[in-house]
Design goal:
339 residues, alpha/beta, inorganic pyrophosphatase (n-terminal core), Diaminopimelate Epimerase, Chain A, domain 1, 2 domains, six-stranded mixed sheet, 19% strand, globular, binds manganese (II) ion
Amino acid sequence: MKTSNNISQAILDRQILEASTILLTSHINPDGDGIGSELALYYHLSEMGKDCRIINTSKTPEVYSFLNENKVIETYSVDHDEWIKKAALVIILDIGDISRIGEMRNLFSNKSISICIDHHPARDEKVYTYTMINTEEPSTGSIVYKYLIHARNNKKLPLNIAVPLYVALITDTGSFRYSNTNSEAHHMAAHLIESGVKPNEIQNYVYESRPMVQVKLLGKIIDGLQFQFEKQFVWFIVNSKMMSECGASHKDIDGFTDFARTIQGVEISCMILELPDNNIRLNFRSKGKYSVNDIAGKFKGGGHPFAAGAVIENCDVTDAENLVLEEMKSKFCGSSDVN
Ligand SMILES: [Mn+2]
């Protein structure tokens, strides 16, 4: 899917050339793709002499702190407002839905140009001046990579750009295991390795440095796994009590839905996460036989065919569970799925 205000690389060149102050941002609880895309663009734009800053609503998850040794990723506070209002160009990366920008949503001044670079379908593309959206791409980092290859005349990328792009790519493709992995993803990886990225080193940082609180929470999640529809569907609840018992916060829940999907025989996994203010976050993952973005869509969410999510407002865990099971019933017991 491409949107009507999608721009070419040449137009992005021009927008960047004309802007001296550029803000880069991503979604709340940013992931490897959001952070990796931001950092790659940041180092490119800084090299061009731009006054460029990365400001996110949420703190950088601990697992990605190795990418932020220079402390260039900032966490939003009202002190940033003045600078943000001055930014001539705002580049929003990997956002999916603009509501996922959190508190920073109302801060774009009318004067600033906004560009959304993403591989999620945009439900609200009109909020941006321009978009560079391609839902065929496995990661936002892949779109940024292609742009940077163009902007830097096909040269090898410096490590400070190649490493974050590699992180973006491996985190969104599950290290080349997910259905979005294509030959271009491997070509991109090869080029990044030729640029000096050490895959084993990066994989260790990302996948073999799990904080103990996450492991404790995972233990509770495994204990509470529930199965239905001949064990093709697995779901689990993460409530505030479990979180506080483990000393975990929302940044620690990344990857659990993917983990549940790895179980033999499971086709779809779902996490029901209790959020503050009586809201529920749903995360869906599919092995590829059934789509899940249509299910997320029923709850006004969205995403990719095999990885999607939604937030249900004013809902408790039990109601959310019943609603999800109802949808799953029509998925597994209804007419056969095209996917
Ligand atoms: Mn992404």
